[in-house]
Amino acid sequence: MTEKTETAPGWLAPEELESVRGQMPILYVDAVPVRVDETGVVTRVGLLLRIASDGTVSRALVSGRVLLHERIRDALMRHLEKDLGPVALPRIPVSPQPFTVAEYFPAPGVTPYHDPRQHAVSLAYIVPVAGDCRPRQDALDLVWFTPEEAASPMVQQDMPGGQGVLLKQALAHVGCLP
C-alpha cells in the first residue's frame, strides 16, 4: 500500500483532475483587473500576456480554479496575487458579486466560451487594483489598455476561448461600452 502525502489541500493529482474533468463541471473564477479614477470610473484594463502549451501567445484575464473548502473571495485573492504579484492591492468587496457567469464547454459553439479540456463554470468579477502589478507564474507581462483599446478587434483577436467576449461584457457592465 502506498501513502499519499497531501501538500496542498484541495488540489487533485493530475490523473485525478483529468478523471474529474471528464465527469463534472469544474468551478473557476475569472477576474478583470482594472484601474479606476477617484470617481470610480474605469480608466485602464489589465490583460496578461501568456504563452500557451502549444507555443501561441495570447492575452488573458486572471483566471483559475476554486479549491475544495475555499471561499470565492479567497480564490480571487489567490489568483490575483499569483498572476499580478503580492502588492497589486486588489479591492474585492466584502460580499463579491459576479457581473456574469461564464460556462465553458469542451465542444466549441455551445456558448461563446470554449475550453477544450473540460466543462467549466466561471464566476466573473471586475476587480479594481491600486498597487504595483508585476506578473508572475506563467504570465509574461501585464499590459494596461484603455477600455476602448481593450475592446478593439486587434486585442480581442488575441484572447482565445471566449475571454474577449467576457472582457467586452465586463466593459459594458461598468458603462465603458454602449
UniProtKB/TrEMBL annotation:
Coiled coil spans: none
InterPro entries in the record: DUF4916, NUDIX_hydrolase-like_dom_sf
UniProt KW keywords: Hydrolase
GO molecular function: hydrolase activity
Protein name: NUDIX hydrolase family protein
Organism ancestry: Bacteria, Bacillati, Actinomycetota, Actinomycetes, Streptosporangiales
